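Run log, item B.
One chain of 481 residues. Sequence copied directly from the ordering sheet:
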Amino acid sequence: MTGVAENHNTSLPPKEAGLFKRLLKMYEQKQYKMALKIAKQILSNPKLADHGETLAMKGLTLSYMGRKEEAYEDVKRGLKSDLKSYVCWHVYGLIQRGDKKYEEAMKCYVNALKIDKDNIQILRDLATLQVQLRDLEGFRDTRYRLAVLRPSQRSHWLAYAVALHLQGELPLAIKVMEECRKLAHPEKREDCDVEYGEYILYQLELMMEAGSFPEAIEHSLRYESYVFDNVSLLENRVKAYLASGKKKEANEVLFTLLDRNAENWKYYQDLSFPTDSAENLLEFCKEMQKSKPSARTPKKIPLTLTQGDEFRILVRSYLTQGLQKGLPALFNDIKLLYKEPSKASIIEEEVFKILDMEKSRSSQVSPQTSSDEDLPASTLLWTYYFLAQHSDQKRDYIKALEYVDLAIEHTPTLVESYSFKAKIYKHMNRLVEAADCMDEAQSLDTSDRFINYKTGKYLLRANLVDRAETILAKFTRVCEL
């Protein structure tokens, strides 16, 4: 809640002046009934019945109590009684803003500042409205005034830098952030906090946007030890190196980032090799598979770079590992490969081979003779699930239903099977059956908000509004205003 600009009111007698200060305090503490009572007590004095600032505060209090008409009436009376009071203009602006009349509210703030041009609270409120209304030039000027009035407060200089950034005045924004950084610079390295590190990162972002790449590199190296978010710092340094044509230095930083996170595809894309051929990236991915055996991205990238038998070998290994681990998102993980019909055919052949192998194993091997080296029993389930997704992608919905029914028969309690069956029905435009199937999935896990939401969505799509309301009401509550 925005505070009201204080006015050391000399027009009130000492007793009422004390009550007025208490009125402001009650308002700030959201004790509106007590604030209203105090306002009425001041106004009960016949000589002060038209005291502008008290009427304005009474109106503001009423507005927060939902009594809008009375609020506007009191504030306008107060303003009429004391047009030269910045408190009255500020209060009028506050209730206008509360009713989303932003242009009118801004005019009120401007009028208040004509009376008290250096009022910090009103300047802050004006700046908030200016950026909300995209008056960026006005926002910049207001933030500069605040920074000049409170030069020791870093938050004002930071906001001024942001205003300059929004205006596209990047060189000046960089200089302002440098001064802001100097104000925040700790005496000892041990005293450095996260906020100081964020100043450095924002200054680095401004340098990058301004195209000052050599300065950005030097800045990131000089203050690296002060930054807690080391990943963001290194990623920006990579961009600066690449923009400066320093590919070797960029690679060294990328190797550090990949050692921390081998799953980030962008790092692999930014790597530079002596020759721009797929073999170099392929070899690098093989090395990453050895150093990071649990990472999936180094195994996934080669699938996009290879063809024919080489692709077959790699995708077989990738599918086997995914099905063995029981990854529901395995199909979505390689869905992009279906853009190439030849690869889609190879994937289908390999999954059918895994299916035949699993069927043979489950029919021949008993629990007593199984070993730890065998694939888990759930591999067959996830193979059925994958084939249902594969058939749905090919728009062979009958086959997709067959495979998803086999998955349900294998494990009747798997929520994913029922939800995907609903998706197949949706693709077939059988909306009621899709809704019923999703409802069944929801009954298996009533605490899952996502499944609950999807069930409501499917029911609404099938025009089953009453059932949808019942489902969605489980995770909603009435908000008492």
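Observations after the first pass:
- The CA atoms of residues 75 and 92 lie 6 Å apart.
- The chain is about 70% helix and 0% strand.
Flagged for discussion on Thursday.
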